[in-house]
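Weekly structure sync - notes
Attendees: PM, LS, DV (DV joined late)
Agenda: review two folding runs queued last week.

Item 1: First target. Sequence and structure tokens pasted below for the record.
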Amino acid sequence: MMIKIARVLHQMRLHKLYLSTVLVYLLMAQSLTVFSQMQNTNLSFSADWISCPGFSAKEYGVYHLRKTFELATKPNSFVVHVSGDQRYRLLVNGTPACFGPARGDLRNWNYETIDLAPFLKSGKNILAVQLWNMGSGAPAAQISYQTAFILQGNSEKEKIANTNTSWKIIKNEGYFPELFPTSRLASYIVGSCDSVDFKKYPIGWEQENFNDQAWKSPIVEPKGRYYNEKRRLVPRSIPMMEEKEEPIVGIVRLEGLASVLLASYPKNGMIQVPANSKVSILFDIKNMTTAFPEINFSKGDGSKVKLTYAESLFDANNLKGNRSQVEGKKIKGYYDVFLPDGGDNRLFRPLWIRTFRYIQFDITTGDEPLILNKLSSVFTAYPFEQKGSFTANDPLLNDIWTVGWRTARLCANETYMDCPYYEQLQYVGDTRIQALISLYVAGDDRLIRNAIEQFHQSQIPDGLTADAYPAGGSKIIPPFSLFWVSMIYDYYRYRDDPKFINKYQVPIEAVLKWFEFQIDSKTHMLGKLGYWNFVDWSFPKQGIPPGGLEGNSSILSLQYVYTLEQAAALFSLSNSQKSAYYLALARKMKKAVFDSCYDQKTGMLADNPDKNSFSQHANIWAILTDCVPSNSQKVLMEKLMANPTLTQTSLYYRFYFTRALKKAGLGNLYVSNLQPWQEMLGLGLSTFPETSSPTVRSDCHAWSASPCYDFLATVCGIDAETAGFKTVSIEPNLGKLSNVSGELPHPKGQIKVSYKKLADQSFSADIELPAGLQGHFIWNGKSIVLKSGKQTLKFPF
């Protein structure tokens, strides 16, 4: 099968640089399955880290490497371990084989393991590598030592391919970084874009017949005194990213080119731009994407092509408005530039993914016309497979589900990302919500474990985690360290994996002990914490609530209580004494917060002991931690919803708002509180943004996709009844809905539910649990045993 795919790939060559993306991805996916079977952290690398002589190994540069070797016969297997700094793309006999490394830090530098046999043949074989370092323009998430590449054969037969001075290397003088100013719009800490001059590009560098005689022998990075001294190599723990080719279509504005020239686009996929002309073509692909644009072009000597990428267009007041509106708006965003050399079938593909709904081609031609042979992009994201589903009789919810899942997908790559257009950073606060969406919709926990481990790797000596990681120059947001513990607790609830969870007991204690040291001896609330105590953008001072700077914040104190109670559950089986200690400390702090901050006049919890500020946030935590008695929580929640003078929760904190709504017994109101998402859809958004503000920066922010979790966890009511999801609890909150179906992937199989309100004002529930799973169905305070298999229940509504 592998040989057949490889043969088809060679027959379907689309251009000189890359082959059909879809087929290549199939080949890569099969070849890379070997890495999951070879998780060996003690692998000894005898191969060398190699780099290009004559250039700074820490500055911007794009390099190409080649290794030629002979094989007597086509091998059945040829396993190698490969990595690069900062990024690499490996091709074998002209076919893309691997892209990496998955992002990490110097103490945890990932390598990929791949079987190259499907790409190899008897006789001469070529390994070709594109390697690059973005230097000062590198993304904030990219940690680096210096430019280098390493490839290590898995056994004696593969060592012929090991990196050493027998390889050849050259710097591609056609690449230049496309840097951006530091204005708010252009503060793209995703890194610089690309400027490529194809007259200086070594065309065909990856092909067997390319003449590399003038290339240099690489220099070898000194190994140092200790193994893995500069980069501690560890096996990649996540799969390769999904790649799927998609056309670039949807011309919505054209300037400087007669429309007749585009009449056949995209039918024949070709656009010819005349000589000595200036053209602007704006595409709206309708749905946001994260992709590698691939522009196949010919001719055009003397031309310049600029590709600008944007989530939305901007009006004269620098506002986005309706995202589908084009009239009177202009594009602003980051961009790539390439200069054609006049040759045929050239390919421009950026080094890193671009995020866009709108893409504009600004083209200036010289004395030769430019032919755009094919405009396409290769969608890429973490390979989540949608195994969960949700449908309801209200089309609004179905649309929210679709857009929410698209949002979650675009915010997941080699790590979770807060937003794919701007920062591309894995923040703890965002990631907790993203992880739950992943579990509920995809049932895939690999990226979650990766995130938990990476936040642990970021811990500083006093115990706190970085706010985002991997990242250079990370900040500290103490509440996010608490949410990291909450992430481990979530994993504990939904996965029976004690070995993984127990690994973090000491790191959890370090986080909690840091906060314990910050308790004010007078108020017994958290005192002055230092750092950036971000809670929610609803608070005007950089998201910091009252008391967040000077101390004695009820919000921060109760979040600590919330985390202490979760930690007590985590330690309950392995360390009952520690568990009891955390519960006792939580009780003491709850009482202190209530005594200092509860306002008898309003019947609500204030943000601080001065009682001069009130928010939904403080009272949400009061409900979630039982700081206020359980018999008062319903009334308190109703007050929060009815009082617009309170500081309101943003899209981010609506996740915790919903947790409190359910706990107060008001889960049936969830469906009627989805107005923010309805308004976002009305603005033509194809993904959900960071905030609902008219000046919103990010149009795709994963924390706003929380309905994908709550449609299953709250509306359908599916949740873990016991740790490890060993039993299930199902307690629906249908609100105004009359017909709802949902499906959730469980480690033992699919959980399926279907609810209907019947004509006789009764309610029916069809439940199907996978073999080996049992639980309870809860309705109006009654609990009914659920068994494996199908069952139908009927109740008075």
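Item 2: Second target, run right after the first with the same settings.
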Amino acid sequence: MNYPKRLIEVDLPIKRISAHSRREKSIRHGHISTLHIWWARRPLAACRAVLCASLWPDPADPLCPAGFLQEAEAQMLKWSDNEHLKLLSRESIEHFIKVNHDKTLLNNKTFLRQLLLDFIADFSNWDNSNQPEFLSTSRKLTEIAHIALGGEPGTKPMVVDPFAGGGSIPLEALRIGTNVFASDLNPIPVLINKVQLEHIPIYGKKLANEYRKWCAWIKQEAEKELTEFYPKDPDNSTPIAYLWARTISCEGPACGAEVPLIRSLWLAKKNNKSVALKITPNHSSKKIEFEIIQNPSAKDLQKGTVQRGNTTCPVCGFTTPVVSVRRQLKKRKGGANDARLLCVVTTKTTEKGRFYRLPTKQDFNAIEKAGKELEKRISKQTGEISLIPNETLPIMSGVFNAPIYGMDKWSYLFTNRQLLALTTLIRLVKQAGEEIRENHDKAFADAIQILLAFLIDKVADYGCSASRWLTKGEYTKALFSRQAIPMVWDFAESSSLADSSGSIITFIDWVNETILNLCETNYHPGVIIQCSATSHPLPDASLNVFFTDPPYYNAVPYADLSDFFYVWLKRTLSEIYPSLFIGTLAPKDEEICEMAGWDSERYQDKNGKWFEYEMQKAMSEGRRILRPDGIGIVVFAHKTTAGWEAQLQSMIDAGWVFTGSWPIDTEMGSRLRAINSAALASSIHLVCRPRENKDGSLIQNQVGDWRDILLVLPKRIHEWMPRLASEGVVGADAIFSCLGPALEIYSKYSSVEKPNGDKVELKEYLEQVWAAVSQEAISMVFSDADARTLEEDARITAMWLWTLSTNTNSDSDQPDDGEIEEDEEETPKKSPGGFYLEYDTARKIAQGLGARIENMRSVVEIKGDKARLLPVEERTKHLFGMEGYKQKIVKKKKEVQLSIFPGTAEDELSYPPVELKVENTGKTTLDRLHQAMLLFAASRSEALKRFLVEDGIGKDDNFWKLAQALNALYPQGTNERRWVEGVQTFKKGLGY
């Protein structure tokens, strides 16, 4: 490569950038995530840092232009003269000047590189994102780098993102002074980016002022029309939420009672306040009544009526199975409009807090009136688009479960009153748009109408029958707190007019703060269009940076999820943006996402091969429009090897050469799919260059020798993994972060061949990469020991646990409140314990260590596409050889039963007590360590002492080295961690 390396190809302060990215997840005020939901939006901090490092050349590279070196030195010296900026770089510069007795940084270009990286890390801090000093320095460096690298004076580098999504990448590119061309196939990202990239930089605070003005008008007009449907209480209290439960008829013999489907009877659950419902069944009339109890005692508390969809009748005790519950609700289109109103939440002007009361006749009259008014408006509706969204809501396994219960149209997700409120707001928004056009130009009026339409989408997200009342915070939780439309038995209906979560007032402030925050950035406009990433309108070699965050194989079904908003936006904006709303629903045929696994009927052709083919076309387009000296950044984060292989293959086939990869910690480990599994905590930023000749043509006939590549690969991994470990990057994150350096060796050739002429496919090479990573990881785990002296079960256990040892944080566009979002029917059954990996990942780990997991049944269990490292207690029979011993798990009874595993929580499951005897010491070091751990867990101190001393197990250095390694690898809070620590502590008293 005859071009200077960019900073990102040499180094990146990933630990500090990750910290700022994680912190950003909790920031709401002024953040673009509050404009409109888009799933898996990248943190601005990570995008800002990566863009700077991609645009600026490495000062220590021999080919770095002198013009950039001089400007970089000048800009970095400014920090040493500015007393108001408390930066790490300022202290570094002061120290350097003191040591070198002058202000010449060019004497040490590596130090200048470090200063630029330090600046990037500081700039990624949310608090610094709009600071004038940071903005001016970053823009100056971007400008000079562009000119020094061959750009025309007076021009800006071009950054392109063909999967624009929530707009983090193009927005940050504008922030640091580039031109931007963004695109997306889905109309909703196009609208989001129109606001962020075009409207706000053009109209500035005028947009915010006019937006607030028309929001106030809409609120005022909505109150005139809707107040009668949300009446205040006689004591002037204001209802802010109505708590409902769907119902079924009990199918018990001679019963037939109407049973509300309630998960929990709690209404408020705080340290200083607790409120609950109490069920009072009337056995003679077969009716169920409720009362509200304050600060209930344990004996007052009752269980909900529904568990995993099975519903128990409080009147007769009969449990109606979930199949029957589903059948009943399906007949009633999900049962939202004939649900049981359980409780009304109110606020008072004279007292703070939330108050709870039973429903009154006034509530029921208002609900009935709302239904009649909606029917009247539907009958009067004219035009091609129906008043309410009757478009189809499909069933998608694990994503859209609501249709299974009859909600197979989007309107069925809402109650009549919710539909009335939403359709009223739509009419008012369209009316506001018309009136604005009478006094302003069309483009400005369109901008305001988009923002007002986003307001409606927020009301819909919080105001549907899949929204929940959260007892810990006492507020309504939006539907899209996760990427699914589940079945929700009991739901919260927010009042659109009240000043609380789910109301118009809250959303007005959110959006206004974001507009004002972006106005402070003072950036020039970018361009956003709707188009497919496989057919880009830009000419060849026209951009400097190709930076995108494409769909992660089958991770998020974006288009189907977006239909929830599409159906409302179509009714609000189709007249001013007809080209965006041509289809009945959002475009899906061209969306590059592996969908066959989600819905094999609608998407039978959109499988892994289709994804790879379409992604290759998109990546080829990116390489086509990138200059030969340009750089590409592709973000990817998927926990399956199939997803990674498809993405990497598509990029190699498209003609990209990998030059690096950096993990930036952005994800949430508390989400269900991450617990005890190898879900990534980081998004891997793959750095690549076009595999081209100087004239821009693709290199076609450069053949690599397989033997040479196999010699270089272990050395490259050996150099890279300690660097990652120093930044705290371990486990699955480290494995996938090694792909960039490893693939640089392979992808720089148009093909790689063996001595016999056979072509080496990517899949085969990745097997070797996994082997090299496994060997390096094992040598790091057993840093003071030779892992080769340990048997394969110990090495695989250590590597397995290391793969899972990923630090995790947050991933949602919504703040996390710690409550599980899934319904009982959707919540996965409690796993049997152990540590899970995707089967193919486990297979490759074992293969890399020279073993086969299929031959290790005493340590690993394989079921379908999952592999489970067995918890130690499940190995009891294998380790102690007790004939007739059954691994039957029973509930602990504190008064009667003594567990062999003391110290566990009272509500955990435990084995029945057994007299453990070591008939034979284990065949392997791991077996013997697990025997010792179980003896310790069973409080068999004398037996453990005999085992370690008399049997001589404690004299084996490998035994204690393995114990030390596993102590560091077993997750905190697990039995295994406690037991191995106990064995190590026991060692001290034995004189070893």
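Discussion on item 2: Residues 1-155 form one domain.
Action: LS to circulate a short write-up before next sync.
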